[in-house]
Amino acid sequence: MNVKEINVLVLAFLGDSIYENYIRTHLIKKGISNVNDLQKETIKYVSAPNQANFLKKMLEKEILTEEEVRIVMRARNYKTTSHPKSCDIVTYKYATGLEALIGYLSLDNKEERIDEIMNFIIND
To answer: N vs C: which end of the chain shows fewer Cβ within 10 Å?
Structure first.
């Protein structure tokens, strides 16, 4: 299987679950034990506007490799008109780009790189 040929929305589908699981695990390990508090904290990381902002910061600081930027841009530029009511299409596409990147890295067995990116996000 060539990971580079997988549909970016499929990569984002996978990346979304990995990303959210990473955040939830981090917050639980941080000591948050109330479910309502966990939900409030999770949204700070998992909402499309926040994911888009994290990705934009990574692009501005040039911490992504050329290959990673290509994956993000493929996902961001993918032709779609649907998006959640909670954000505009551009924001949604940036969030999708971040999720696609995480999915791509996972399928390419680059767990250490996922850790680096997630640490950047958590420590932002």
So the answer is: N
